[in-house]
Amino acid sequence: MSAPLGAVGLAPPVVCAPLAVEQVALRGLAASARVVRTGFGPVRSAAAARWIGSAGPRPVLVAGVAGALTEGVRPGDLVVASEIHFTDFRAPVPIPTAAALAGALRRSGLTVHLGPIVSSPTVVDGARRTELGREGHLAVDMESGWLAEAAAGGPFAVVRAIVDTPDTPLVTPGTVTRGFTALRALRRAAPVLGDWFAAVRPREVVLAEPRSFCAGVERAIDIVDRALDRYGAPVYVRRQIVHNAHVVRRLTERGAVFVEELDEVPAGAHAVLAAHGVSPAVRAQAEERELAVIDATCPLVAKVHAEVKRHVGRGETVLLIGHADHEEVEGTVGEAPADVVVVEDEAMARTLTVPDPDRVAYAMQTTLAVDEAERIADVLRARFPAIGRPRRDDICYATTNRQRAVRAVAADVDLVIVVGSENSSNSRRLAEVAGRSGVPAHLVDDVGEIDLGWLPGAARVGVSAGASAPPELVDEVVAFLSALGPAAVTTRTTGTEDVVFTLPKEVL
Q1: Does 494 appear as a known binding residue?
Q2: Pairing state of beta strands 360-364 and 340-343?
Q3: Quick check: do 203-211+397-493 and 300-383 share a fold?
Q4: CB 368 within 8 A of CB 425
Q5: CB atoms within 10 A of CB 306
Q6: Would the pLDDT of 4 be above 50?
Q7: For the chain, what are the domain ranges?
Q8: pLDDT one-digit tens code per residue, 216-245
Q9: What pTM did the predictor assign?
């Protein structure tokens, strides 16, 4: 359970509802916080903020109705403010808890928009409304910016339900119906808003080090960026350059075009091969289509390919420990499909057969969980005493280092959050390794996927990130956790990395 707020240096929580009808709609929050009618407009809001904030830092949630500024935000939708701007050009108010709150509200079935809102001292309509929408603001109200002071530096959030839109202004037929729709959305949001209050507490955030990008990922992303700089858009990339949705989105915005297969690439175009490696058949296809190929294969993956070719050249069957549906494994198997057997688990290792038990070798997918892969290898070594093995560990240094670091953190926290995309093997393995330490561990693509229900009892939260996850996503998670109450952020270091891989000549 969450610690009593009085014991954590925070005054009791408050919900600021500017209007009486909003206060009534939010009465379901009475068990979580005091719901206070703060009054309409900036003058009453500023006065209420001074009174509420006089008790010192406290959790404050501003909730009520607002007007939409952009198309696509409809009556009854919720807007969660990522920051508050002012029409009088005061400094904006950032809200680090917004993304996780928006994600929780979406998962409850509500239609939610996340982004900046603007607080205005007067009603906004006409051309000014259009202008504010074009500047990227989602909604406008007359209170949130002034009520932000009520938190006095404590946890803060803003949730607004839309009543009017640019094509259905406030004073038009249907306003009453739209108002009821908005208030109904606020009532439905109340349980999730209660979860936000329950997540407030002091905590220690322990960062695992190393975490986030490895040298192979940095190299692959840099290759695409440099190719776009040198050759201009579009540059085509076969599959995801690395397994992270945020990286792919950013590169797409720059002009990279991601394709499943090279037959989607115009003849003669520039094509980047992703970090996970490809089979010789893919390289042959690129040559046939006269593509200008830029190879971003991680050098450590290329090493495994070379090992497989060497063993097969000696007449050995290669037992490849890995996941058959992973792109890296698909590419490695493609070096010699008739002579490579994928071994996915210990059960398979115990039952597989090979043409000649004395002519066998094994290799590994580079992003496996070290402990799990070694158990499979132990079975193979016991069954085939003459088995050949890698000259050096196939599991890459970054995977090993991140697993060691997250294991050290997991031993001393209440919860582990791993940042990484679901299709990232090394990120999924990090969450699994942490979970095997006996602590709840969750993989999230970004802060918006954090479940508020994980946090009430978590006084110490460990945070790591897969080798393909951008470090700024970790920063956002830390900012969110720190915004939920007094937080001490420490780093648990189990090693350092100074590996750098050279770039291909095509982008130098």
Answers
A1: no
A2: unpaired
A3: yes
A4: yes
A5: 12
A6: no
A7: 5-198, 203-211+397-493, 215-297, 300-383
A8: 999 999 999 999 999 999 999 999 999 999
A9: 0.94
Q: What is the 3-state secondary structure (H, E, C) of 83-118?
A: EEEECCCCCCEECCCHHHHHHHHHHCCCCEEEEEEE
CATH number of 300-383: 3.40.1010.20
CB 240 within 8 A of CB 258: yes
d(C-alpha 481, C-alpha 97), whole Å: 8
326 in a known ligand binding site: yes
Q: Which residue in the list 143, 209, 328, 449 is annotated as catalytic?
A: 328
Helix 370-383 × helix 425-435 angle, to 10°: 90
Tell me whether residue 113 is annotated as binding: no
SS (H, E, C) 143-176: CHHHHHHHHCCCCEEEEEEEEEECCECCCCCCHH
Count CB-CB contacts under 10 A for residue 112. Answer: 21
* Domain 5-198 -> CATH class: alpha beta
| Residue 171 pLDDT level (bands cut at 50, 70, 90) | low
Beta strands in 129-276 (DSSP E): 139-141, 156-164, 203-209, 235-238, 256-259, 270-273
Q: In the predicted model, is pLDDT for residue 193 greater than 80?
A: yes
Q: Is the dihedral of CA 78, 84, 85, 87 positive or negative?
A: positive
- The pLDDT score that the predictor gives to residue 8 is 55
Domain 203-211+397-493 fold: Cobalt-precorrin-4 Transmethylase; domain 1 (3.40.1010)
Average pLDDT along the chain: 95
Is the pLDDT score of 106 beyond 60?
yes
Consult the annotation and say whether 244 binds a ligand.
Answer: no
Q: Please tell me the CATH code under which domain 215-297 is placed.
A: 3.40.50.11270
Q: Is 349 helix (H, G, I), strand (E, B) or coil?
A: helix
Any known ligand binding at 214?
A: yes
Read off the tokens for 76: 């009854």
User: Using CA atoms, how far apart are residues 358 and 336, in angstroms rounded to an integer?
Assistant: 19
The answer to whether the CB of 144 falls within 8 A of the CB of 117 is yes
pLDDT tens-place string over residues 287-344: 999 999 999 999 999 999 999 999 999 999 999 999 999 999 999 999 999 999 999 9
**pLDDT at site 391:** 77
175-198 vs 98-107: helix axis angle to the nearest 10?
A: 110
Give Cβ neighbours of residue 127 (< 8 Å, ≥ 6 apart). none
Residue 325 CA, chain-centre distance (Å), reads: 23
Model pLDDT, residue 3? 43
**Is 328 a known active-site residue?**
yes
Token pair in block for residue 189 = 């949001």
* First-to-last C-alpha distance (Å) of the chain: 55
Residue 54, pLDDT > 90, answer yes
- Flag whether 400 is marked binding: no
CA 163 to chain centroid, in Å, comes to: 31
